[in-house]
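Re-running Penicillin-binding protein 1A to confirm reproducibility after the cluster update. Everything else is unchanged from the original entry.
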Amino acid sequence: MAEPENSVNFRIRREIDGFAGVVQRVWGRWWVKTLAALGVLGVLGATVFYFAFAAGLPSVDKLRTYEPPLPTNVRDVDGMPIHAYARERRVELSYDEYPTLLVRAFLAAEDKNFFEHHGVDYLGIASAAVNNLTSGKRPAGASTITQQVAKNLLIGNETSYARKIKEAILAYRIEDTLTKPQILELYLNQIALGRNAFGVEAASYAYFGKDLTQLDLAQMAYLAILPKGPSNYDPVRHADRALGRRAYVLREMLKNGFITQAQHDQARAEPLGTVPRQTPKTETAGSGYFVEEVRRQLIDKFGEDERAGPYSVYSGGLWVRTSLDEKMQDYAQTALRQGLLRFDQGRGWSGPIGHAEITDDRWQGALLNTNIGLDYDDWRAAIVIARDASAAQLGFSDGSTGTLPRFAAQMPVRGGGGTAFAKMVPGDIIAVAPSGSEFALRSVPKISGAFVVEQPQTGRVLAMQGGFDFRVQAFNRATQAMRQPGSTIKPIVYAAALEGGMTPASIIVDGPFCVYQGARLGQKCFKNFGGVGGSGAHTMRWGVEQSRNLMTVRAAATTGMPHVVSLMDRIGVGKYPPYLSFALGAGETTVSRMVNAYAILANQGRSHPSSLIDFVQDRHGKVVWPENWHACDRCNAPDWNGRPMPRPVAGGKQIVDAMSAYQMIHIAEGVIQRGTATVLRDLDRPIFGKTGTNTGPTDVWFIGGTPQMIGGLYIGYDTPHSLGGGAQGGTLAAPIFKAFAVKAYEGMDKLPFRAPAGIRMVRIDRQSGKPVFGAWPSDDPKASVIWEAFKPESEPRRVIHRGTIVPDPAAAATAAAAASAARARAATQAQSEARKDSDFLQKQGGIY
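Result of re-run:
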């Protein structure tokens, strides 16, 4: 049945049919089909285009937790910064820490619409595209700050249109993920601005030598021009170009209402005001050898760059607390340098420090590329620019120049004829010092050496000097130079003998000693230093004090060389075969090892490995090394709560018997009082030590110190050859240690070496080693009666020989009465002497 025309369903069907007819008629036209097809193709193309470039793009979510590569900062024992390990100089700041004018300067220079767009500047892109197509140059221009963040942190600096498209996609994503201030913070912290500075704060110091907060408007505007290319606006080579670009930034700031006309005019009138390239502010002169050794240890532990992990040295942002005491470092460095200069004085000019080829008068770059510098006194490293008959023209790393007159460079050339002035050629890098308005030649000593200072209770190294100057001689002789220690090995040999049952009063013959070494080597006969013959039987103490080789090898042979070299190994000196020559220091070792070995003896035989690093924190303050590090609970409490004070847990391994170690220290105190190091006696404090002079002599040594601090040094040529027949440890090395000690120990308590439990102090005759009962030691270093340290039941005793004659019966009563009286007097005397012994020991601090 037909549906009525006035029904609702009929009307709806009719409208649908009418609309379908219209669509059918329109769709039947060719141009409609063409537009539809193009539309579908466009959508499909856009989708394919998007996914072709968007696929594989990094996630922007990691920008929320992005941590830029940061340098490792090194601090001394007091927490003061001394150095930074960095390939990229960077100081990270929060957005709020950046001055408002500085932010505006960068917006005016790079992206004035930053706070209005959503990551992409379409008009700028179109204009740049037209310019690139018409000019045929590399794709460039119109990148917003957000796009630059995407490029620098996510996709790299590839030069292509594809990279620009990826930048735009990532810029949209970044704007959806981060706030505008967060984006600006990333940008200002990571942008490369030249002079190895990454981030604006690092650039502020690199170009102006001060923090951002101290910059004026003109200086901020200069920093804002650098993202376009730091080398293009170098303040030395392209000053005019830099001034022009800075003026543009200031005009843009004025145009956008960021500054007033008065501010603009004042800033534009200022010069650039940059400073020369300089050493970063966290690098302290004088600590080069120490911080380089710290760097080696950190790289061994954490790796060099980000590929090694989150705590890498050059990007992990570590905070390193070291044991460096800058005062001790200065004292050790000064003492060693002055000692080297004294020895080298009068031996002629040692030649140029280095050489660099100069082309087109670009001498400053040539000098800077050598990285040669000097921080001794007022000395400076200079490059010879030119030389004529009367003077040489010098150039310095800061770009300044000077004159070296002929008369100020007349010292003879070492090992050759002529004068230093005659041997100089352009490109030579030499040491000079100011002399009036000109300069005078100086000679860096050829001889070198090393000095190490250590705390015996902890093993912490307080100072390390590995040569004359780190920037001239980077090789660290304290840890890398393997040298023969000579007689400084003897305390370790005698410590083994003491462990083996000998005593300080044991009699050893100072006489000819030969051993048969087999058919191939034949007979080996030892000699004292300088070929001095034997002098008969003496105590062990005398042999150590006078450094007698013949007594040392005899003691080593008696003890057994396997036991001696075993102790040398355990105490960290080195691994050696059991040959007697190693008892006289024939084995090679380092100053650092020897100082630590003496520190073990001074610490009652307990070992603490040498350490330069106290602890390492990550960029967030968490201690990441050592693994078992714990903060000292209650150490920083403002008030004492009455409970036991916190104390560090005693660590270390017992390497040497405690009593044997103390006996050796007590003997070595005699080396200072009447032995080979009497030059140190007037320091007037308990101090032990031993000098060393090896064959040649090619090296001279001294190692020793007090309960608070052990120091050791050697001097010698890097390529070993004789120092001269008169060279000895007591005349060359010990005075260097004294120059250090006079300043280092000033104001320090005079503490005696503490004896371990069980040690018995006995009065003996210094020459014979026999006990003394009727006399007392005195302050005279050469007194015949001294206190000697013995283990229980090892001290010498008085022997009474009883006669076999029968007394006369008639005199028996008289004799008995006399004997009784004598016994009474002896008992009284014994009590008196016992009280005096006790009094003496109490005055000396007791026996512990």
